[in-house]
Write a structure and sequence with these properties.
This protein has one domain. The protein has 4 helices and no strands. With 69 residues, it is mostly helical.
């Protein structure tokens, strides 16, 4: 089912609400920034996955580089 935005999805779909609330508060805030573009559970999952992948890439890029002799 297609919803107007994340807020409508959150209030209209118990499954999406449960999934959203299962994320960390930090991730919830990042997801909310894209709320106008989230119209379905599939959109919510895709945005969440993209955010988590991006955060992981940033974390890896900030790791110190170890050179082996």
């Amino acid at each position: 089912m297609r919803y107007e935005n994340l807020n409508a999805l959150y209030h209209g779909s118990a499954g999406s609400r449960k999934y959203f609330l299962s994320q960390s508060v930090e991730t919830q805030l990042k997801i909310s920034q894209y709320g106008a573009y989230i119209h379905s559970a599939a959109d919510l999952h895709a945005v969440t996955d993209a955010i988590k992948k991006y955060d992981r890439m940033i974390k890896i890029s900030e790791m110190p580089f170890k050179r082996h002799p």
